[in-house]
Amino acid sequence: MKMLKKLRLLLFFLFLFSCYDFHLTDEEITAGLKSALEFGSKYALKSLGVEDGFYKDIVVKIGLPQDVATVVTQISKIPGFGDAIKLIEEQLILTINRAAEASIAEVVPIVVDAITDMTIQDAKTILLSSNNIAATEYLREKTYEPLCNACISVIEGALNKKIVLNTSAQDVWKNFTDVYNTVSQIPFVNLSPVTTDLAEYTTSKTLDGVFIKIGDEEKKIRTDINARTTDLLRRVFRQLD
Prior knowledge:
By secondary structure, the chain is mainly α.
């Protein structure tokens, strides 16, 4: 009986040793994590940087800023304006999302560079974190400012294109806010002036969508064995299973 217990204990420890890879070097861990991040990031960004990548994705689709939505709601209540305002609203939302989609080409090289520059210590800390989006949060911290700078010029250009009635999204927004802010100055109206910058808002929402998608891919690789497409990925992430 004692021999049987010892045998079971031995088999148990052999099983534990077989599940943990003690032969991975720090360089292999770093390479595996970088490979996973680059693959996941490129896959996520590819899905966003196409027509309808934002517009038809219910998770990341960009709606109107709250200030704009308030303006549109108030103006659409004016008799005879409802249908016209609805058309302009839909065109405005479409243009905002098209601007986001167009800016993704600027995102890819910045994210890839941040992954390439990741240190061994960064990689080990991220890999062993209990946070399923630790790498995504690392990338957000490292890239957010340069991404804003890279994307906003593309987004501003897209928002300045003519969309309806020979006006641009920026023109529509300015017209709405000018009227609304004039009304807000009337005593006892109880409306606050609108100050939202449409390009800054769109850029912020674009990057929110970027990191949501990258985070989704990171979660898959951390939790789904089938998402680990190379032997190195399987060896590195097996330590987390």
